[in-house]
Write a structure and sequence with these properties.
Strand 2 and strand 3 form a beta hairpin. This protein starts with 17 loop residues before the first helix and ends in a 5-residue tail after the last helix. It is built from eight helices and three strands; from the N terminus they run αααβααββααα. By secondary structure, the chain is mainly alpha-helical. Helix 2 packs across helix 3, helix 3 packs across helix 5 and helix 4 crosses helix 5. 20% of the residues are buried.
């Protein structure tokens, strides 16, 4: 038994990492209900275009009370390999849906989903849209604004410019709306 699992009692069926996860989560849960939610929500994310394993990891983090689990805890809950967890959390951190932190008192990483993860993920699309707009302007200049392809690119560019303007306004409205729904209590 390692010092990381000193609180676990051998022979009682407590899997490594389960005690830490239980301490972070507020109360007992029906594991079957949680698993069903994780798989159903992950399926919805997959249908929307997110890869399967990142979808499952993201849903598992959302379903944990703490919103934070170690790689071992994620692997245990989802019955997947450490490599599968690693690749999935890399994808999720790149998409700004999950953050990586150091678990206090250990050398293990803790993966956390925040209450504003969707806001951050959508807000970070601004940089992507900027790059697409630059590429579209270059394409219009190269193909010619008066060609059918140039006009199609110009319409696409106009859409992305419109989207960026509306997105900024919508994000501002969301911040106001969120305050009315979830007043800060800390």
């Amino acid at each position: 038994m390692t010092s990381e699992h000193a609180g676990d009692v051998e022979g009682e069926g407590v899997a490594p990492g389960a005690a830490e996860a239980d301490r972070r989560d507020a109360g007992p849960r029906d594991a079957e209900v949680v698993s069903r939610f994780v798989e159903q929500f992950a399926s919805q994310l997959v249908e929307a275009g997110m890869p399967r394993m990142p979808s499952r990891i993201f849903a598992a983090l959302l379903a944990s009370d703490s919103g934070a689990l170690t790689s071992a805890e994620l692997g245990e809950r989802l019955r997947v390999s450490p490599a599968a967890v690693s690749g999935a959390v890399r994808y999720l951190t790149q998409q700004h849906l999950v953050s990586r932190e150091r678990e206090p008192g250990t050398r293990r990483d803790l993966f956390r989903v925040h209450s504003n993860q969707w806001y951050e993920a959508v807000g970070n699309r601004d940089a992507v849209l900027n790059r697409w707009e630059i590429a579209l302007r270059d394409g219009i200049a190269g193909l010619g604004a008066d060609t059918p392809a140039g006009r199609r690119l110009a319409e696409t560019l106009a859409f992305f410019e419109f989207l960026q303007e509306e997105l900024a306004a919508m994000m501002s409205r969301w911040r106001t709306h969120k305050k009315s729904l979830f007043p800060e209590d800390h």
